[in-house]
Design brief:
Elements: H1 9-14, E1 21-22, E2 29-31, H2 39-52, E3 55-59, H3 65-79, H4 83-86, E4 98-101, E5 115-120, H5 138-164, H6 170-174, E6 185-191, E7 205-210, E8 216-220, E9 228-231, E10 240-243, E11 251-255, H7 257-262, E12 271-275, E13 286-293, E14 300-301, E15 311-312, H8 313-325
Parallel strand pairs: 1-10, 2-3
Antiparallel strand pairs: 3-11, 4-5, 5-6, 6-13, 7-12, 8-11, 8-13, 9-10, 9-12, 14-15
Length: 329
């Protein structure tokens, strides 16, 4: 993926709004079991999967299945709250924290994603948590899960640091949960069930084609609740998409734009989308949980080879938002 960051991502993404073709690709599963003793082997596997496709899945990641199941239960409970309660905790865009519904419009399709979400960014959650009366134990459960996701992400990023010739803790230092500049986020997602009258209607999307702006995304899914598709950027013109089979036990990962720049383009950030289910597929609600490992605002992003000038993570994100969401004229 080219990473000049001043080109029109809007025009590129518009070409991603079409249906395209379904293409089989291997989405590799990397086992993190016995991580420290197998670090070199795991690093090789992660690097190959990340550079060849940009997406991979993790097993042996260390987050117990009952905790994942409980987190999905808490997610469903939050979104089941009445809108007047969720509306008390609205998304604060500049802090990427709070609840939103049908507000994210992708340039690739020009209409809102068919979902609602609740964003948790640690330093900015004052006044945005449901009360203990509304959702007992919700806050502590979410913060514990966010930290566990951070631990997995830092393990993966430490492998990429090794391969890039950076200090092993380079990315961990740049994602400090105790810092007021911490901007990694846990996003709880609820895609709405497809209405009866719209089932089978072509050209509908739950989330339009996009790349992520972060370093690394960890996505937790549920068995049977599919729709995620990926397309490597180098194959964008061919519009060949690969569906990722959802698994309750695996974490699906993808590289974001921030790590592409940080790696001097060695690690590609690729397009993905969530399509509406087709005929004969599950049409009900879809829940997922995403953790976005996004470097602290004051972290300096510069690749080992110096391909691009240094930039703070805050300025980098501003550039990406402007490139992707500037007004059309």
């Amino acid at each position: 993926m080219s990473t000049s960051y001043d080109l029109s991502e809007v025009s590129r993404e518009k070409r991603m709004g079409g249906l395209g073709r379904e293409t089989a690709r291997e989405i590799r599963v990397v086992d993190l079991t016995d991580f420290e003793n197998r670090r070199a082997e795991i690093t090789d596997q992660l690097w190959a999967a990340a550079t060849e496709i940009g997406f991979f899945q993790l097993s042996g990641h260390g987050i117990p299945q009952p905790l994942i199941d409980e987190m999905f239960g808490a997610t469903a409970e939050f979104f089941a709250l009445p809108e007047e309660i969720k509306g008390q905790y609205p998304l604060v865009k500049e802090h990427n924290a709070g609840w939103e519904s049908m507000s994210q419009v992708r340039p690739s399709i020009g209409v809102p994603d068919q979902k609602e979400s609740y964003q948790v960014t640690r330093p900015h959650m004052d006044g945005l948590w449901p009360s203990e009366t509304e959702l007992p134990g919700f806050r502590s459960r979410v913060l514990d899960f966010e930290h566990r996701a951070w631990e997995v992400a830092m393990r993966v990023l430490s492998c990429f640091a090794d391969r890039l010739g950076l200090a092993r803790e380079h990315f961990t230092t740049a994602h400090d949960p105790a810092s007021p500049d911490y901007q990694s986020a846990l996003r709880l997602l609820h895609y709405f069930a497809v209405p009866e009258e719209l089932r089978g209607v072509p050209g509908r999307w739950r989330a339009g084609a996009h790349t992520d702006f972060d370093c690394l995304t960890l996505l937790f899914q549920r068995d049977g609740q599919g729709g995620l598709q990926v397309c490597p950027g180098k194959e964008m013109a061919e519009q060949e998409w690969t569906s990722i089979t959802p698994s309750s036990s695996l974490i699906t990962c993808n590289i974001g734009d921030m790590l592409t720049r940080w790696s001097d383009d060695l690690l590609p950030s690729n397009f993905h989308r969530v399509r509406s289910p087709g005929e004969g597929e599950y049409q009900g609600e879809r829940y997922s949980i995403a953790y976005f490992a996004q470097a602290d605002r004051d972290a300096i992003i510069q690749g080992p080879g110096g391909k691009y000038p240094p930039v703070t993570a805050a300025d980098f994100l501003t550039q990406r938002v402007r490139a992707n969401y500037r007004p059309q004229g």
